[in-house]
Amino acid sequence: MEEATASTLGVAVAIACSLLNGTSFVVQKMGIGRAQRAGHSCLREWLWWVGTLTMALGQAGNFVAYNLAPATLVTPLGAFGIPFGAVLASWLLGERLSPLGKLGCVLCCVGCIEIIIHTPKASEVQRLAELEDRLTDPVFWAYVALVLLVLLTLVLRAASPAGSSDALVPIAICSLFGSFTVPSAKGLGLAVSELLPSAAPPSTPHAPQLALAAAAVLTVSLPAQLRYLTCALAASSSATVVPVYYAGFTVSVTAASSVLFREWAGASAVAALGAACGFVTVCAGVVLVEAYRDGSPPLPCQPPPKRD
Length: 308
Fold this sequence. Notes:
By secondary structure, the chain is mostly helical.
């Protein structure tokens, strides 16, 4: 598949998955509401499971998108789901979207379009052998060491009484784990594509080992992200968590992809500035959507209290 075609397909998949993720939150909230009215756990509500499976489908599609287009292009497009979910919630849940919230929806869309225009459309790493070569770069390992050091500090901080009530600590942990999740997903996709029986011989004899290493990193990073994101939502409102997490996660993924995949190596200063402006526009839109949306966040899935 040509790079331009793959990149276009990756953008389309990323946008579709973003809309699926935005839909999943609304459907999950509908399921939680039905479960509360029925007096049982949302785990017994089919509508909640529909939302959960929709979210899983969206996340699986994101992994496909990461292997079709640069991560620095795919990751910011997740913002498309925020205004879509807000509009959908206003229709299905009766949540009121204020004029500033509607402006935020427009800003999210405008910023995403600006990012699509200015972000590099081709990845510098197309083969597993190229990725293996990049993994020997001392700059990359220095970046990994720095991220691990910061993560260790933040995890210890989160375990302390002071850190347990600070939402910024788990948000920062979730964001930094993105430095491992997205590159590992892209690496696993490259490995799987070369290890398929119908594919040409792998570009490196270490393809199975690289696939196992990427899968191991994902096994650790994904549950950790979910855990600390839950902690962040428990410590603060979604109006605070969502925009800060979006910004932090996008910056983290962009930094890791720039170091490992060098996706911005051939980009001009104008393109970088345009993408940065688009990112800031999206962040402003996300803040407006979340801060000026009239609706209570979903409650955690807990079994109903026992009746006497």
